[in-house]
Amino acid sequence: MASLKKWLDRRRNPWKGVFYDAFKLWKAENGPARLYAYDTLPEGATVLDFGGFEGTWADRILAAQPSADIHVFEPHPVFAAHLTQKFAERENVHVHAFALGRTDGTLSLSDTGDASSAVADLEKSLEAPVKAVSQFFDAHPLPAIDLVKINIEGGEYDLLPALLDAGVMDRIARLQVQFHLFDPAFAEARDAIRTRLSETHDCAWCYPFVWEEWRRRT
Length: 218
What we know:
Layout: H1 2-12, H2 17-28, H3 31-35, E1 46-50, H4 56-64, E2 69-73, H5 77-86, E3 93-96, E4 99-101, E5 105-110, E6 124-132, H6 133-139, E7 147-150, H7 156-165, E8 174-177, H8 185-197, E9 201-207, E10 211-216
Parallel strand pairs: 1-2, 1-7, 2-3, 4-6, 7-8
Antiparallel strand pairs: 5-6, 8-10, 9-10
Helix pairs in contact: 7-8
C-alpha cells in the first residue's frame, strides 16, 4: 500500500521525482552510515541540533563524543519539555525551547510528531517562539562550531539564510541538513541557499531533499 501511495504521489506531482529518486539511492548506498559518521568529532566538540524532537540524534552524538557541548533547539512545547527532563542531568546538553530565524516572533506548528511543521500544508494547532539568530549568538558567541544538524520540516529555508546573513556559517565546520520539498518553489530556494553555502563550504555528499552534508574549506 505504501508503494502504491508513493507511485500515485509521484504521478500526480512529478516535481517530487527528485526526492523519490534520491531516497531510493539513499537506501541503496546506505546513506545513514554517512550521516551518522561522528567518530572524528573532537573532545568537547560544539554541536547544534536544530529539530531535537525526542533527543535521539543528541544521544548519537553523546555516544560518539560524551564531552560534546550540545545545543538542542526544539520549539514544539511538548517535545521541548521532554528533552529538558531527559537531559536534566547532562550539564553539557542545553535545551532551547524555541526556533531560530531571521527575526523574533512566533510560528504556528502542526502537531504531527516528528513531522510537525510551520511550513507544510497541515492544520496548525500550536504556537511556538522564534528568536533571531543574531540575538542568540550575541548571548552565546560560540566562536567555533564543529557540527550542525538541521531537520526542521521546512524551517531550513528561513534558518539557513539567517545563519548566512549573520556570518555564523563561517564558524561551522560541518553542516548536515535535510531540505524539504513541500512545494515546487522549494527547489529554487534550495538552489539559492546551496549557492551561498558553496562560497565557504564544499558539499561532501548529497541526496537531494533527503540529506546532504557540507564541510567548510580549510
